[in-house]
Design a protein that fits this description.
four-stranded mixed beta sheet; 416 residues; binds pyridoxal-5'-phosphate; seven-stranded mixed beta sheet; 13 helices
């Protein structure tokens, strides 16, 4: 197949339109694999940007979308409701941390983050704190690509060119204590002093709990979240957990915040919510946050799209139908064993594994052409970026495939 039209007209993520990096033509997917136009099967080492958690094209999820499409593909959500939206809420009631049961259905993760920030600001305004309209976040964080979400993502990261137009937020140092290392109180000092200095301007703090994903690939100590919860409560600042990447088992717990045993006031979920089939995310708030907000000022055209809600219902049924925890534990042990040898690799600075996430922090990554060659030779789809060669495989990835993923990561690390 010739991809001339793609090159002539179609923009790809984080890419130039006129001199794009190479792309592969995908025609099908199943289980842990993506099938290319020429029939080549690639093991999807990154779950299609972390969303195909239970494998690709799960029959039950595809069937739910098809069946819903034949009845009600969409209806506006102002003035209407529908069964898939309510059935999804019932499932979320079973899964979400208790008390986080007011769901705003957003059309993507970034939009769920926008909604979470807007909820926090509207809440503060409704309870009389009109000046509390700024947000604190962590260096090394990532919360999406829309303007509000960029404003709370790592200020030195990929979005820095927008700095002049983004709302100015406050950033604390990245938590330095490792997830499985010793806790030191000094690790919270930067956040604590920021909260002290700005408490009368702050509506909320937003963090990715335990795992800073796209901008850091970093696992930090659960004690940080317990300190943060207490500090926010003391100062009347809302706490937002962005579990879009970490939710639904990825780190070994249903939600990563369970490692700390604390709950946020607002939580965002997305990515694996629909098992990698269709875009949907949720901003969930507690009653305390929701109650004072007279009219929440957000309403996307495709809000609560019935196809997406039906996919999410089927995906959550799938999640509760198998022992995902043992699968994630199995993946964690296998990745730990397999990636340990990468520590001796000259290009590798650090090796980090938690749950079904394995990351090599490297000095340099191979160029796109070399990466493409290695992907096709190894039959493993990986997408190194910045200083990271990482995997987040679907939970259904078997041991043989995990071994191939780890070996492809090693080859990529050695290729510079
Ligand atoms: C991917 C991601 C987002 C953005 O979600 P999109 O669906 O890509 O808009 C937000 N927060 C975190 C933590 C993410 O990993």
């Amino acid at each position: 197949m010739d991809y001339a039209t793609d090159r002539a007209n179609i923009w790809h993520p984080y890419a130039s339109a006129v001199t794009p990096p190479p792309v592969l033509g995908a025609s099908a997917s199943d289980g842990a694999c993506i099938v290319l136009d020429d029939g080549t099967r690639l093991i999807d080492g990154i779950s299609s940007w972390w969303c195909a958690a239970h494998g690709h094209s799960s029959p039950a999820v595809v069937q739910a979308i098809q069946s819903q499409a034949s009845k009600l593909p969409h209806v506006m959500f102002a003035g209407f409701t529908h069964k898939p939206a309510m059935e999804l809420a019932e499932r979320l009631n079973q899964l979400m941390p208790s008390g986080l049961n007011r769901y705003f259905y957003a059309d993507s993760g970034s939009i769920a983050v926008e909604c979470a920030l807007k909820m926090a600001i509207q809440y503060q305004s409704a309870v009389g704190h009109l000046h509390r309209c700024r947000i604190a976040a962590l260096k090394g964080g990532y919360h999406g690509d829309t303007l509000g979400a960029m404003s709370v993502s790592d200020p030195g990261g990929m979005h820095r060119i927008f700095r002049g137009v983004l709302p100015e937020q406050f950033f604390a140092e990245r938590p330095a204590c490792r997830f499985d290392g010793d806790w030191a109180d000094a690790d919270f000092a930067s956040m604590e002093s920021l909260l002290d200095r700005h408490s009368d301007e702050l509506a909320a703090v937003i963090v990715e709990p335990i795992f800073q994903g796209a901008n850091a690939m970093w696992f930090y100590h659960p004690e940080y979240l317990r300190k943060l919860r207490a500090a926010c409560t003391e100062r009347g600042i809302l706490l937002i957990f962005d579990e879009i990447a970490t939710g639904f088992g990825r780190t070994g717990r249903l939600f990563a915040s369970e490692y700390a045993g604390v709950q946020p006031d607002i939580m965002t979920i997305g990515k694996a919510l629909t098992a990698g089939t269709i875009s949907l995310a949720v901003a969930a708030a507690s009653d305390r946050v929701a109650a004072p907000i007279q009219a929440f000022l957000h309403g996307p055209t495709f809000m609560a799209n019935p196809l997406a809600c039906a996919a999410a219902c089927a995906s959550l049924d799938l999640l509760s139908s198998y022992d995902w925890k043992s699968e994630v534990n199995r993946i964690e042990s296998r990745l730990k064993a397999n990636l340990a040898s990468c520590r001796t690799c000259a290009n590798v600075r650090d090796v980090r594994v938690l749950g079904a996430i394995g990351a090599l922090e490297v000095d340099r990554i191979p160029d796109p052409e070399t990466t493409r060659k290695i992907v096709l030779e190894t039959g493993v789809w990986l997408r190194p970026y910045d200083h990271f060669i990482y995997t987040m495989p679907p939970f259904v990835t078997d041991d043989a495939a995990l071994d191939r993923i780890a070996s492809a990561m090693r080859i990529l690390a050695d290729a510079v």
